[in-house]
Amino acid sequence: QVQLVESGGGLVQPGGSLRLSCVASGTFFSTSTMGWYRQAPGKQRELVAYITSSYVTNYTDSVKGRFAISRDNGKKVLLQMNSLKVEDTAVYSCYARIQETYSRNYADYWGQGTQVTVSS
């Protein structure tokens, strides 16, 4: 059973930094794209950033220049968040497209989410 577990959320003042981490556990063949979504109260979920297996990255406009996504050998994805703003407050969930061991089919997995609150 594949699981994604996030950590690193919390409360930070405007202008501060946080680093989110997401680790994939269980048995699987490989990971493809990994990324982060967020959902603020009363708003739709939005894609914050993603990184492909070739390390190509993409960011939503509102976080460009402030957030940086990275990954290691396929089990961990990080989101470094700098110059945080009040409007970054949301539940952040990690996402991974994972290739299953036996079928070699791809399936999408989600973490449980971690709260990020930016407030003075």
Tell me the distance between the termini. 40 Å
The H-and-E topology, N to C, reads as EEEEEEEEEEE
What is the strand content? over 45%
What would you call the shape? Answer: elongated
Task: State the helicity in percent bands.
Answer: under 10%
Mean pLDDT value: 95
Round the Cα radius of gyration to an integer and report it: 14 Å
| SS elements, strand count | 11
Structural class: mainly beta
Number of helices: 0
- Biggest beta sheet attributes: 7 strands, mixed
Spans of 5+ residues with little confidence (pLDDT < 50)? Answer: none
Question: What's the gist of this structure?
Answer:
It contains no helices and 11 strands.
Write the layout of secondary structure elements.
Blueprint: E1 3-7, E2 10-12, E3 18-25, E4 30-39, E5 46-51, E6 57-59, E7 67-71, E8 76-81, E9 90-99, E10 106-110, E11 114-118
Parallel strand pairs: 2-11
Antiparallel strand pairs: 1-3, 3-8, 4-5, 4-9, 5-6, 7-8, 9-10, 9-11
Q: Can you describe what's shown?
A:
- By secondary structure, the protein is mainly beta.
- Helices cover 0% and strands 55% of the residues.
- The strands form 2 sheets. Strands 2, 4, 5, 6, 9, 10 and 11 form a 7-stranded mixed β-sheet that branches. The protein has a 4-stranded antiparallel β-sheet with strand order 1-3-8-7, with no helix packed on it.
